[in-house]
Amino acid sequence: MTIRSVLAISLETASVLVYNCYINSLLVNTSANKRYFSAAAQKQLIRNRVLAMRAGQLVDKDVVLVLEHPSVYTLGRGGNMDNIKFDPEKEQIKLVRVDRGGEATYHGPGQVVVYPILDLTQHKKDLHWYLRQVEEVVVRTLAKFDIQGERVDGLTGVWVEEQSSSGDNGQCSGRHEREMRKICAVGTHASRWVTMHGFALNVKTDLRAFDRIIPCGIEDRAVTSIERIRPDATIKDVQDAAIEAISEVFHLDMEDVETTSPL
After folding, report:
1. Which of 61, 101, 148, 237 is most deeply buried (CB count within 10 A of its CB)?
2. 216 catalytic per annotation
3. What superkingdom does the record give (predicted)?
4. Was 106 annotated as part of a binding site?
């Protein structure tokens, strides 16, 4: 399967950097389109891979999509509408039902969203292992900015300990204590061991957007961002760090080639 056939899909709603991975190298293409990257495009990439495998073709490429979405709320499969605090019929920001695991979350400007489309038959056929590896990517990404990311027993995603107050989502109100705040949401799905969806890491996200939902269905935990801890970190810095962490965790060698090639 050639690079061009892998990426010959409709990117009608894309705002995406496409990293086309080989076991021993990683090729890079970018799109300047600034619209929303739909789940349908991810599914088409997966279908291409599955069809190639069924045909007995060698599929040695993984694909990683790196996005910065316009504002959108998403609700996972089986997600509870009680976690949505607004009327979707009257809201300008879209609410999209997607087939990842998990509940409600927000994507928007200032957030680094990463969708690995990996063939787990080339890594490990274990979805629990994969979820933990995605969290490890985030932990390593944060470590590159001297931020200690942690896991919380029984909860997905990555968390940081932060001085907080009784106000929600970073809003001060006087009483300070230490608490674990969610800095990155993780939600995945797989079809025939090919993964989709991934993680959303808050960098310079407007955290007030989370006030309109119960993030991930967890009422008693606030969210935070890299900016609150390391205000000098840029979106590009974090994107680069995330790709480096993916290389480390999934043992992919990187080869940065033409970044202006059309998709």
Report:
1. 61
2. yes
3. Eukaryota
4. yes
